[in-house]
Predict the 3D structure of the following.
Amino acid sequence: MRTRLALVASVLVLAGCVNDSAVTVRSSTENVVDSPRLPTAVYRVGSANTAEVFLTDLSPEALEPGTDLAVVDGRIVQLRVFLVPRAGSTPIDPTASSLAIRHVVLSGGALGVYSGGGFMQPRDRVGSPSVSGRVAGATVRLTARTPEFVDRLGAASFDASFRATLDESRANRIAARLDDVLRRLESAGAK
């Protein structure tokens, strides 16, 4: 199987979710950077204080659960905001933690999942028609992979900026595809 870290991004022109999200995953030990363009940015609300943001470059066809992963190249980034910081009652500092990160790389059947955490303070109220945010200096590392996946990043820093549209339907669709990918990794005995 071939492993490609530099992937061809699919451009999605879906009303309400075309975006210029910037994600940079930079190796802490090697001169390797993964900076995909992720034009789809949507989110769903968990509660008044939680949300899940999904950034991806996958086409609608590639997002269908069950689609053969051997023909899918792209990324899914999941930012799970578990605490919206509030001045005076929450530490508001880049060394604090307010979100969990998953950066999933799909490359012609090879799969790698980088997971970690960091700090993000949304610029908009959760539940608004759109929410923007910035993550700086978060940390991620490879937590699961298929045997064909070559980890070129190792421990890495994660930076992102985005504006995501509130779209429960699309967010649920991306979440379902992400769950499908994670189940395939588990069934393959990925480590």
Remarks:
- The radius of gyration is 16 Å.
